[in-house]
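Entry — protein

Goal — fold tokens:
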Amino acid sequence: MKIKITIGLYLLAFLFLFPTNGFANAGLFGGNGQNIRLESTEKIQMVSEDVDIYLARSEQPVTGGAKWEEIDKAHYKCKFEFKNLTDKEVTVSIGFPLVGDNYALPHYSEKNEDINQTKIISQFSFIAGTTHGTYPIRYVRTDVKKQFTHIFLWDMTFKPNETINLLVSYSMTGYYGLGMTQKMPYKWGQDRYGFEYLSEFDTAITQIFGYVTATGKSWHGAIEKATFTIHVGEYEKYLEKRGASEIDEDYVYYRQQQAQAPFSALYRRITPAGWSEQGEKNKRVVVYRFTDFKPEMEINIQYAFLLIPKNLNDYRKTVSIIKEKYNKFRTMIIQSNRPNIKIPAEWDMNAEKNVADIILEYYGISTNNAAIKPFLERQVWYPVDSPRKIDAELKENLLKIQKSVL
């Protein structure tokens, strides 16, 4: 006797403190074709899950564009151990969907049913199989409830009580663009920190990758063993050299188009907590290990180039641009001649000290500046657990500014 069900290995998407995209582990689908739907099963167990995520540079220079080739990638290598818990043969249709709207993916109108299967599958470099060979992959646009999009499917047959090691690999872009550095929930409003110019530091150039596990709840029981390894060493070496883009270190594109100061300091945040960092330099990895794993977490890998200078030259550019924008804002308020709007104070050494103290605090140097405390408490990088390396010339200049106002 054969039982046919449809199984989904999710490729879910989610958003950052900054937005992102991520593929994920196995869920169960019922139905077929465009009528597939998410279900659960007691017949198949995901015994183990072993995922390696390799972060890598794009095929072309990163310039701020939205083309697939211009955005850095994550390459996923996954091994899933599935076990048929029944004494009957079971045929399943495995599915990997991508949920959400990824600007780098090919888009098709609802009326366009002429989907180029080969183009989409090859764009993701999507392969599924075992050590004995690969499975023929087919593509479906969405499920019947339109919860999931870009679904890759293939058939597998389990013999009675058989265990199969499924190997899946694929590549996709992360998210690249402007993001917020505030802790969630976000707070909006020009004067939320008491000084309008501090809000400039809420912006970052972000790159985000992810992996979602929640769909593994569709399977029988807990996953006995799960390991997630994020290979960060080579990629972080590349980011430190590259800067916020590959145009130049000052990120000319955004400075010209949006009058932004240099996005310099690289900040990495990986959630949830519970990971360990291993290896050195280019071989450095971040690892999660679980037993009796209940798949509920979302792994979120976030890189942000903050408006925090790395050297004295960047600092001078940053202050010059923030000061100019602040003075224009102040002039606009004055010229509006509206009595119900408070006129911001003139830019002075206190303002410059506040900016300098934010930078010192980022590098782990305490300033005890109560004026910037509301700002600091909203930032994802604060408090600083251990001091960050700071350029000696930059530090000397910032401390001089601090002392000049005391």
User: Anything to note?
Assistant: DSSP finds seven helices and 20 strands in the chain. Residues 1-20, 108-112 have pLDDT under 50 and may be disordered. Residues 2-306 form a domain with the Immunoglobulin-like fold (CATH 2.60.40.3680). The longest strand covers residues 44-56.
